[in-house]
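Input:
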Amino acid sequence: MKSIRNSLAELGKLKTDTCGKDFLLTWEKAEDEIRALLLVAEILSELHRAGKPLRVFDSGLAISIFRDNSTRTRFSFASAVNALGLGLADLDEEKSQIAHGETVRETANVISFLAEVIGIRDDMYLGEGNAYMREVAGAVQEGFDRGILHQRPSVVNLQCDIDHPTQSVADLLALKRHFGSLEALRGRKIAMSWAYSPSYGKPLSVPQGIIGLMSRFGMKVALAHPEGYGLIPEVVALARRNSAKSGGGFEVASRMEDAFRDADIVYPKSWAPFSVMQRRTPLLRKGDREGLKALEKECLANNARFKRWECDEAKMKLTRGGAALYMHCLPADISGVSCAQGEVAAGVFERYRHATYREAGFKPFVIAAMILMARVKNYTAALRRLAKD
Amino acid sequence: MKSIRNSLAELGKLKTDTCGKDFLLTWEKAEDEIRALLLVAEILSELHRAGKPLRVFDSGLAISIFRDNSTRTRFSFASAVNALGLGLADLDEEKSQIAHGETVRETANVISFLAEVIGIRDDMYLGEGNAYMREVAGAVQEGFDRGILHQRPSVVNLQCDIDHPTQSVADLLALKRHFGSLEALRGRKIAMSWAYSPSYGKPLSVPQGIIGLMSRFGMKVALAHPEGYGLIPEVVALARRNSAKSGGGFEVASRMEDAFRDADIVYPKSWAPFSVMQRRTPLLRKGDREGLKALEKECLANNARFKRWECDEAKMKLTRGGAALYMHCLPADISGVSCAQGEVAAGVFERYRHATYREAGFKPFVIAAMILMARVKNYTAALRRLAKD
Amino acid sequence: MKSIRNSLAELGKLKTDTCGKDFLLTWEKAEDEIRALLLVAEILSELHRAGKPLRVFDSGLAISIFRDNSTRTRFSFASAVNALGLGLADLDEEKSQIAHGETVRETANVISFLAEVIGIRDDMYLGEGNAYMREVAGAVQEGFDRGILHQRPSVVNLQCDIDHPTQSVADLLALKRHFGSLEALRGRKIAMSWAYSPSYGKPLSVPQGIIGLMSRFGMKVALAHPEGYGLIPEVVALARRNSAKSGGGFEVASRMEDAFRDADIVYPKSWAPFSVMQRRTPLLRKGDREGLKALEKECLANNARFKRWECDEAKMKLTRGGAALYMHCLPADISGVSCAQGEVAAGVFERYRHATYREAGFKPFVIAAMILMARVKNYTAALRRLAKD
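Output:
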């Protein structure tokens, strides 16, 4: 438990102001807050490894709203809230009356009377997911201000159109553990590259989350994608500014190979072009099936031009010592395994399979840390109590 | 916590016999039991506001059976059982085998071996919902009597065809808090009025629950609806008797305006005509889609004759000082917001929006109070312990 | 609580090695382990009857994966995990991405970071259910060995193609309680007989589980079924070997009457012919609807030849003293109640209805016992603590 004591000591030196707040975008959080979040997640993980209970709450509700399918985020959230002692209540929009003309404002309040946290996944429509989370946060704030809610639950972004903070922070924690410290990441090159997938319309939140967060810790971020597959321009600009400030670097390449060259870390992953997402959103809203089919056909045809964007052995050889760390948020489209041709060659994936599982393993503890820091004023003292138990 | 001490003292003076019992209709409960229920709910709410845990159970299951969509009742029940320390298990009839010929009697027993409470919502078919709850209650009673169940779970009515006790008691609590005491309600006029909605087939349980409960506390109850939109005659007769006994009043008006005149409280809400519900039930049972469509068409056409039954500013002006309290169980059909024309004008609703949210906020605590009083013999002592913690 | 003290004393004499293990087939468990399992389940049941909490865990997740509809097993599992203090998380494959090409290996790990137990029901396809459970168990074992999982969750078979251990152990416990002791079962005749049902394709796991388990305790097992309705030959062979070893008997009859003659216990239940299940599996895998329809038609026609295989009063008269104990896993196809003609005559079922409910009542405690013995090294000490509370 020496590592826990060290982490607790380090935690004491950081300045954070997270109690009662939401977690919507990593770049809205101060660097100290991100550092503290990593430490809290590490402590919770180490306590769990040591068989110690993580219960902090006697009761209380954690609400989840998943507007898209999810396995690992759903279970990560369920695991985190259970470990802390909260009960989970899923707002299943099919079973609820939310579809029948209820306003977000009203629903947010009437479900939240005993809620500590609301976790939301809403990543389908560009310009909507994060906005929806802010609408919910605004509604419960208003409810609290008007004496409707006894407490103001915190909203946690479980993936939106802009960012995927529980993923990117778990990834950062995986890197911290892999390389030994956050300081050891300074100067490391991370290649966040588009990769080919036979599917269409994957959200932009992972690549945006990665470049928006990793750029803050002195890393050299290389973003690569085919022409026309750009991310939200504001997020790219933010990553560029972050890099300049943190003493790292930022470049955009038009070939996977260029990004991979001398990279310490590679993150090859498919996403839909920003411009396509922009065209898709009004079609989805109108329920224009014909339009959506035509767009899908066009996109898949366009995608097919970039089948060479696969993380294969040849490209891995270009990385530093041919031994970059391969990362993925899972599930990966593995060539010859989960699809005929995909994001990553089977041999490459197999070599890093356990590493990607381990990477995923940080997510429940990151979510638990987000909740703990948002709900418990003196979370360091709470962790000390857990460590003593 | 002075208010909690006062409430506890007041509670000690009331005679109740609720342990091991169900909560199926408010009018099956003695007045002292309703008064105690309000006090227990208030105490739980105040304890929660003060940040005190409400946990009374170490473990145990609360089963929910929702035979209709629900958001706020679902979350109110989930919140209440979580706060008390119970786990929630939803009997999803689609996923279970209940549809495949199992009898209610058998299912009620085999799901209840570790259950403390069974919450049921079944409000669609006239003559069926409350009867189903009694069937379940009878089955678990038999199971307990025959040594099959170690304990006999209590059934809580989360809305049926006759009553909606968690709603009406929450509404009564909202009135008690708004006017200062139950005694202050004496002589107040409450207008329970039908209102126009573009939808069809809303249950009768809310208006019936309101007139059946409010008539017991000396209020002047004015029920208003268009011709042909009467409630279950037995419930109207009961409300009339209650009013006579409690020293209040009871009248049926045929115009919203008449009910609103000098009202202290207005509750404008759509419901389906009793006679239509009676015709609909056999059609639903037979699965007669054509018959149902024809009936819906006929009803919507009939409904459309009463679009003027909207709670608008002009009608609100008729109330006492033009400032009656507007109530609604939510979601309301708000003209120009959730529909073109509905139950309430947007301006009126907006003025009372926070009040309706606050009204909804009593429901989880009312449900928790129902469960506590049904499961814990000396619930007052349990509350004292929670207050001291 | 004398019975609890006696059971605890008896438990202390048994040698078990269950901690960290799965529960996949009863015949993989030593006789002492089955005896201990019965004792632990009895103690938990008696503690619950005495109103004592059964909480052993502070937090932790129990994952359920139901690949078939279920009411009583679902609620038994939910009840058991709640009583022990675990939270339930259901992997709903419709809502998750498991259908989108994820491998079992990956999913098993990414959902298990905080899991204590994974309960699986997968009984549809011959040769698949138990194999799937082993695949999941292998995946989390690999995850634990590679440091991905802090703990290796135990897999519990909630019914597969081969065995239904939570059912057969609950049935054995019902027999132990009915006849007074396991020793009192020695020499008793149990008739596990096929029975007619208007439905098609019921799993083989219950009859296989019954003959595989009851044959270990000196009982005379009589298996009866029409020609062509045989069980998996390896399981029949195993039951025969078990009987020889335990000093019981094993016979296969071709008429329900022969099995019932002088039986102490009868278990009449429908199942699909092994050979049909073998033909059905590839059809299901191919999604061959026409083929499935043709097979169903053929089978129902064949089934109809055996409508006389009903547990009626005349056949009950053949049993020892005309008073054998009737058992069923529920729901039974009751002639004239749940179907026109089925497995059991209404009068017979009604006479044993409470007994079958009581039989079902052991299941939650058997599951809780399986989890406790798989997760808590010194489970006897844990039970002692619960008994003292």
